[in-house]
Amino acid sequence: MTDPELGGRSPEPAxxxxxxxxxxxPVRVLLRLNDGLSTTGGEFTxxxxxxxxxxxxxxxxxxxxxxxxxxxxxxxxxxxLVGSLPEVPWGxxxxxxxxxxxxxxxxxVARLPYLDAVASGGSTRGLPVGGDELITRASQDPDxxxxxxxxxxxxxxxxxxxxxxxxxxxxxxxxxxxxxxxSRSYVDAGHVRSWRMLLDDALDRARGVxxxxxxxxx
Length: 218
What we know:
This protein has 218 residues and is an alpha/beta fold.
């Protein structure tokens, strides 16, 4: 992903190839060619080509999604892109938070095939503003909890509440980079390990694992 401060752009295929060679972890690649949340016919054709190339290079899933001029989920365009790919799992990127009617947006994405994640902070300003609303929504709707990838300024204090609400996907983004800065290109393994431990602990506690057992296994 390039230009993360602007919501991200599709990376060069060479970058995807390098990442896939360096890790055994699943790699999800962003499909986005402009700063907006829609696409043109020419761009769409290029997105399809990029998606197919990313998959051939080893990517396991993709991130994309479109809104229409009324800031509703553009189901037709998004479904067309999904249909051009060989049953590939994908996630709706954070552009989801710009949808005008949140309830309607969640119902719309639930109809889209092969979707396994919706990246959302509950607000265009992220989890510091929209986190409480997301926690409530996830606790009341299992489909939201299953699809939600909580991201956008995720704080450690929010994790236990999100986990209790049934959320199991988290985007840590800049929080695992030195100084929480996208301008520094590397991910700090120690930061990743700390988040993994935090998430595992929150999940154990949500499942009712006794505190002593959690501490003994650490």
